Amino acid sequence: GNGNGNGRASFDVDDVDDDRRQFTVTSLQAHEGLWEKITSLIVPEKDADEFLYSPSAWFVSYINWTFQWGFTWVFLSFLAIFMLLTFAFGGFLKLAGDQYPGCIVVSGEQYGYNDSTRLADAFALSWTTFTTVGYGMIYTSTGTDYGDQGHCSLIVFLCTTESFVGLLYAGMCAAILFGKVGRVQSHAQVKFSHALCVKLGTPAEDGDNSATTLGMGGTGTGLGAQLVLETPTSQAPSAFLSDTPGAESQMSMMSPMSTMVDRRPKISCPVLTFQVINKLANTPGGEIMDANMRAVASNRGATGRSGANSSSASDDAVSSFIKVQLAEFEHPYFNRVWQGRHVLDGNSPLLTPAAKEAVRRNGGYWPAEWNNPKDVREAMRLNSLIVILTGISNVSAATVHGYKKFQYGDLLVGYEFAPVLYKSEHKNRLKVDFTLTNDVVEQAGGVADVIAESEQGSERGKKRGGGTRSSEQMAMTAAESERTAATAAAQRPGVVYSKSVRLDVRQ
User: For the region Disordered, what residue ranges are annotated (predicted)?
Assistant: First the structure.
């Protein structure tokens, strides 16, 4: 195997000379008689020790389709199947009526009295029988209408079968609609933000930034060599500490009796944030009780920018899901806004092993030289983040759920979500401005990702930080904005120019 830069070996299938044989295991019946062999041609074989229901694949596909598409398309599919069945039975009834016209009565006359309406009459008998409407304009003859009822056995059998199929079809349609309504009620009426924001670290409040003496195996009396750590030169995580086990020991090559004086500023770890808003926030009784939020990350070998450091296709073929611990994962009364937060510290699964080791060796603080969008992205190991919300709706009293899958391209470093709450003028209560759900503001005092901007054009009257924009900036075309952002990214070290997200500037 070849090293892939993150401490794991990767293998390419084409490079491995594997001469092992591969087999398919099939369960065999102990005693398979002639009848079992015949029925196995019609009904798929079932394992007696495997208690699984195996309905028709076509039927299962249609049921799944009805739950995935909207009500309009489901209604149209019901209508199409209804027309297909009624036309099919109408065709059989026409053939039988042509053979025995006395067995069908059309407005008091025998079937075929008007030769030009034979097909229409047969179809009328079909759909009235299928729906059990029974207008009385057309029906199967009785002994009074036609004496030789033995000839009418086929028509009676067709009408009886069609009425039974119609009842089953009506019940199936009702069951599907009932399930779709239940599915609507089981979905949480929430709205997730489009972006994942990463707030850069800020100077820690629980300690000063003065020089601190850290004993490295010494007695603290000043014996041994003394190493003074000034603010180091800016190095990317990939250059400062690579994702290999050997590289993790680069920071530990000190004398056991040495004393280290740390004069580096203490920076809190960055915080990854996403936002969830209750769509019924402005509706009384729209709360979600006992809400829980969980998150799992899909790494799939991705390290750094959009998996750019993934070494081979074999890494991409293996996806690993890791639980991500949220700071606030429970909410007993979710009625307005909920921001999920995850701290990118030494225990975060979203960081590379090298970055986690560096945070631990830094006393749990974020390295100051990494506190910029470029190095934060380099330190992260993320392909996608799946957030799942569950709870009990106060509207339907049913268990509800919802989920959102964030991709790496949704990541914004150096931003935070804009406030969405405002106070109602008529009622003394807070309300949510849903138009601000996806609004973000640049982090105060920090360096943010440079992203192509475009003017939204509508005035909200709610300016959310970031300073005012000049008229020249507002008048820039999309191409000019993109070129300007790219130039700014090149001139500002440690800043990432992203084309995955577009920001609309609010006036």
Answer: 453-492
CA 85 to CA 248: how far, in whole Å?
70
Sorted by where each begins, the domain ranges of the chain are 71-186, 190-200+267-443, 213-241+256-264
Residue closest to 507 by CA, chosen among 482, 480, 470:
470
- Per-residue pLDDT tens, the chain, 507 aa: give them: 444 444 443 434 444 566 888 888 876 655 566 776 676 666 655 555 666 667 778 888 899 999 889 999 999 999 999 999 999 999 999 999 998 888 898 988 888 888 888 999 999 999 999 998 888 889 888 877 777 778 888 999 999 999 999 999 999 999 999 999 888 888 999 999 999 999 998 887 654 443 333 333 333 333 333 333 444 444 556 554 444 444 444 444 444 434 455 566 789 999 999 999 999 999 888 999 999 999 999 865 544 434 444 444 444 555 678 999 999 999 999 999 999 999 999 999 999 999 999 999 999 999 989 999 999 999 998 889 999 999 999 998 889 999 999 999 899 999 999 999 988 877 778 899 999 999 999 988 768 887 765 544 334 434 433 333 333 333 333 344 344 344 444 443 333 334 445 555 555
Q: Taking CA 317 as the corner, what is the angle to CA 311 and CA 322, rounded to the nearest 5 degrees?
A: 90
Question: Other C-beta atoms within 10 Å of 191: how many?
Answer: 18
Q: What span, in angstroms and rounded, lies between the C-alpha atoms of 376 and 272? A: 11
pTM (2 d.p.): 0.64
SS (HEC) of 20-73? CCCCCCCCCCCCCCHHHHHHHHHCCCCCCCCCCCCCCHHHHHHHHHHHHCCHHH
Q: What kind of fold does domain 71-186 have according to CATH? A: Helix Hairpins (1.10.287)
